[in-house]
Amino acid sequence: MESWVGHEVPRLPGRGGPLSLFDSARQGAAPSTPTGAGTMYVCGITPYDATHLGHAATMITFDLAQRVWRDAGLDVTYVQNVTDIDDPLLERAARDGEDWKVLAMRETALFREDMEALRIIPPAHYVGAVESIPDIAEKVLVLLKEGAAYRLDDGTGDVYFDISAAPRFGYESNLTREQMLEIFPERGGDPDRAGKRDALDPLLWRGAREDEPSWPGGDLGPGRPGWHIECAVIALNLLGDRIDVQGGGNDLLFPHHECSAAHAERLTGQAPFAGHYVHAGMIGLDGEKMSKSRGNLVFVSRLRADKVDPMAVRLALMSGHYRTDRSWTDDLLTAAQERLARWRRAGAAPSGPSGAAFLAGVRERLADDLDTPGALALADAWADQALAGTGDDPEAPALFTATVDALLGIRL
Ligand code: 5CA
Ligand code: ZN
């Protein structure tokens, strides 16, 4: 499907270094791209509600990764999905008496606008689950034929993945079976479904139900795809058998990314599916995770309608480290608005301290697992000095402005 419109990214002098990223599988940081190209797949929205600040923070995280890779001279291919058919979408549409397709189209359009306003570099491929159904059905059939999947014999046509076909199962999330069993039903899993071989086996294909949309699945029979196979197939088709980064919020650590990796690895015979599994922290409100089910959401579009500068929203979300679960507060936004105004004044100063040193410092901070608090502190220090009239580099304000634009995505 259509992506959103990007902005020009200023070219900076020289090159940044390799990006070290925390990988959930290794439980430690490691260089993210050994080769001259970078491939990244990020789990996008299920479009049954507007983009909230949690979605925005996760998208900003992977936007930063893409910016750092590009600055290091890498050729980047970034893919993001839209889960435009799944239970939550159908449930919301039914609750509101709306056509699920109309709901998905409207919220996806709003997401695109939000991403543009936040200056997120668009993915090369923005892909819906629905448009991927023929590819997904084909891969589910392969898993069935190879004995890695099985059909329930209750007449539903539902097909499950057999996790015993994934000997490494658990390597990505590093959870015990007890922990997995606890989390699985909270995140869409159905451990108690009768007829499953293992309680943790995930759904690959849901056979057609009378009151639900379905698509022809060839030899699979009509139905619709499971969630984890959606992301595995889209990533494999567009990025190849091994990707550098599989990204999303830390709510996807298990079962989503564990199962996607298990599906992909079984299909390709290669492991690991991703060089890095990267997880952004949850954004909460007043100490609780921001989520549709809790209803404690702050929407990007609401802030935009209230004339809040999207650059201040972006700065506020970057003031904490991406891996930290953190809360959105009014104070955070106010501080970001003040910081943005100060940076703008500093960027318009006649001179400042060395722009080259500032650029090198920001590159170094971001290459270290996207240390945005460190990068923002360097920009604050540079701005303080420029506004105090210390530093006599007349080129520095322009380089300061270009650096925060290219590397932090903040347009002054
Ligand atoms: N469509 C699936 C992924 S394939 C999904 O999780 N959709 S979502 O709309 O629930 O979330 C979209 C992205 O935002 C995911 O990467 C998710 O991990 C992330 N996300 C959701 N809630 C939050 C939050 N409160 N804070 C940070 N990131 C979040
Ligand atoms: Zn996903």
UniProtKB/TrEMBL annotation:
Catalyzes the ATP-dependent condensation of GlcN-Ins and L-cysteine to form L-Cys-GlcN-Ins. Monomer. Pfam families: tRNA-synt_1e. Keywords: ATP-binding, Ligase, Metal-binding, Nucleotide-binding, Zinc. Residues 39-337 form the tRNA synthetases class I catalytic domain. Transmembrane segments: none annotated. NCBIfam families: mycothiol_MshC. Zn(2+) binds at residues 43, 231, 256. Belongs to the class-I aminoacyl-tRNA synthetase family. MshC subfamily. The keyword Ligase applies. The gene is mshC. SUPFAM superfamilies: Nucleotidylyl transferase (SSF52374). Its EC number is 6.3.1.13. The keyword ATP-binding applies. A motif ('ERGGDP' region) lies at residues 186-191. This is L-cysteine:1D-myo-inositol 2-amino-2-deoxy-alpha-D-glucopyranoside ligase. PANTHER family: CYSTEINE--TRNA LIGASE, CYTOPLASMIC, CYSTEINYL-TRNA SYNTHETASE. Its cofactor is Zn(2+). A motif ('HIGH' region) lies at residues 45-55.
